[in-house]
Each structure stands twice: as structure tokens, then as C-alpha cells.
């Protein structure tokens, strides 16, 4: 995604780089050190042979080349001969079934999650089956955001609650309407949980593990009632970020982050335009399917009243072809919506999550700068008091203790900013790699479906051709 253009170090990269390799002060409560956990420091997992990796890996990442070298050196781990090779892992979650429970305003849909897992620490069985309602997914998302967003982890977005889905589920007694909501949401929830377990940090998370393995109902998520308070909180949080940027603007000194954010904005704009076009395409094909059905009915009526036997027979055959073509367009519209349009929208939401991570970095920088200003202000106060009193006094001693505490806090915030910046670099690299793979898969599936649909239509029209030639004039 990035060019090989040489970039220069930022004004604070040199200072934050010195603390990048220190221990994480904001570690997870649920993380465990074990042989299969990818989050466990390598020094606690295996013996390393003596290599030049430690010398070749850049201590401070100030350029795109340094970032690529850092990624290569950390992906290619070197194991000692006595250490076992990592076991291959398999982790897949499928939602095949769903059902509506309750009546009226108490109605809701539950989804059956079928989990296949092997080689992942914390999972004692290879298969699990659990039933979860939509609010359970939102509750899990809230926990994940609380734990990982401040660490620079890109967290996929679950589908949001909507008035349309709420009405079709609770206020409508037609099973077809509830089924329509269930099918679409099942696809979206499967994408969300699959994207979640792809991340090496979250596949071993205790909340994710409980969500996929505990067969009993989970405690009700109190913050997901009505139309998702998470969306309201996010809007309020965005306002806070805007006001914060206006009050304390961050001059980006790292050209790598500046370039990446610019590319992300361009990608976001392009995907949104593509999503709008795909929505129009799906709607047009559905209209073609509806129009084909209406045309088939009209041709059928015309064939019934036609006196010429050969022409009536041809019109009847044309009716069948038209209805079959209409059915093919309807199927293609559903495929386009499920595998093309929804996939594009998923990446729009992922980009939104990536922007949230960049916002966390800005917030961490602002907290660091605020601590620096507080430290300078307290030092000025102490100097004035010392000069006015002619020496140290009780107020001066109190300010000295506050200064020491502020210095410690500032160092912690500086370390957090450095660790967050490094984590975001890793997340951007992982996002870029996944995006290329997903886009390739999506486009191939789309082209294959189009080829299959047009091949089917061609066969239908070729079958009708002899009937048209047999019309006697």
C-alpha cells in the first residue's frame, strides 16, 4: 500500500523510540503466559539461537524502510533446535441456523454459532455450538473495545441495530420478514466474529473464548438496549475528539503516519463510492428480476389467446425463458449483495475502526503534551514561591512532590505513546495484507458468479432458438 519514498523522522520519534522496547504498562487482565499464546514474549516461550536479527532490527522506526525491516525481522522467528515448531491452527466460526423466540415486543432472534478450532490455547474441544442473540454480540464488542482500543488494536465493527430490523422482528408477524432480517444479519455477524478471531491478540481473549464455548446464556448486555447506545457514545466521542483537536492541535511530525492517514482517507472515499454503485447495481438487478416476472405473465396471457399453434408454442417457450432469466437475475442480485456489496461495506467499517485507532494516538499525544505543560507550570510556581519566600517552605515541598509525580506520569504517557505508535504500525501492515487477500477473493467470486449467470442465460436462449425458427408464417 505504501511507496518506497524516503521519509524523515518526526520531532518526537527520537524520544519515544527509546521507550518502545519497555514493558507494557497497560497489559490485559485476561492475558496468560503459555506456550501457545502469541502475545507471550518470546523470551518466555522458547530458546533463541544467536542471530544478527537483534542487531539488524532498527531501534527507532522513522521510515517506511525501517518499518518493513522491523516487520520482516519479527515475522521470521528463529527457533532453537530443541524448541518444537509451532503447531498449525484452525479457527472457524459459521452461523448456519437462527430462530425467532418470543412474541410481539419481546421477540428476538438467536443465532447458532458452530465453532471449529484446533491448535489454539484455551479451547479443550475441537467443536462448539452456542446460541447467541444480537445483543450478546454488541456486549462482546463493548468489552473488546474497552480492553484493546487504547492499545492501538483495530477492532472490527459489528452490524448496528436499525429501526427497520427492529420493526420487522418485533412488530411484524410475517415469518418471511423476520427471516429476511435473520439471513442478512447472520451473514454480517459471521463476518464480524470471523474477523475478530483472525486477530492474534483477540483469538486468545477470555471474553471471546467464553462467547464461543459457554453453552448457557450469557448475562444480558445492559448497554445495548433500544437502538444501540454504543453508536450514540461513538458520536459523542467523535465530538470530543473534534473539540480536543481544535483546542490542542497535533502537528504530525512522522511522515509515515501522515502518508498512511492520507492513503486511508483516499481508500475510504473510493470504497464509499464503490459501495453506492454496488447498491444501485443490486437494486437494478432486482428490478430486472421483477420486470422479467411481469413480462413472463404477459407473454403467458398472449400465448393463451393466440390462434396460431406454432406462434402460441413459441410464446409459451419464451415465457419459460423469460421467467428463468428473471430468476437468474434475482439470484445474481442476492449474490452481489451478499458477497460484493456487504464485503465493501465491511471494509468501510474497518477503515472507520482504523481511524478510531489513529484518534487514540492523537489523544495519547495530547495527554502527553498536557502533562508536559502541567510540569512546566508547576516548576514555574515552585520557582516563584522559592524566590518570594527566600528559601524552601511547606508549599514548596508540596509542589516538589507534585512535580516528581507529574514527571513520572509524563514518562508513562510518553512510553504509552511510543508503544501505541509501534502497535499501530503493526496493525496497518496486518490490515494492508488482509485487504489485498480479501479484495482478490471478493473480485474472483464476483467474476465467477457473473460468468455462471451469463452462461446459464446463454444456454436458456440457445434452447429457445429452435422454437423461434419453427414459427410458421
Question: Helix and strand layout, with pairings?
Answer:
Blueprint lengths: L12 H5 L35 H4 L7 H12 L14 E12 L6 E11 L8 E7 H15 L14 H9 L3 H24 L7 H8 L15 H19 L7 H51 L3 H81 L4 H76 L4
Antiparallel strand pairs: 1-2, 2-3
pLDDT < 50 runs, ≥5 residues: 1-29, 31-68, 74-83, 225-232
Helicity range of the residues? 55-70%
Any idea of the CATH topology of the largest domain?
Substrate Binding Domain Of Dnak, Chain:A, Domain 2
Q: What would you report as the Rg, rounded to the nearest angstrom?
A: 30 Å
- Estimate the global geometry from the Cα principal axes: elongated
CATH superfamily of the largest domain: Arfaptin homology (AH) domain/BAR domain
- Total of domains: 3
Portion in strands: 5-15%
| Level-1 CATH class name of the largest domain | Mainly Alpha
Structural class computed from helices and strand pairing: mainly alpha
Membrane topology: Peripheral membrane protein
InterPro entries: AH/BAR_dom_sf, PX_dom, PX_dom_sf, Vps5_C
GO molecular function: phosphatidylinositol binding
Pfam family, one: Vps5
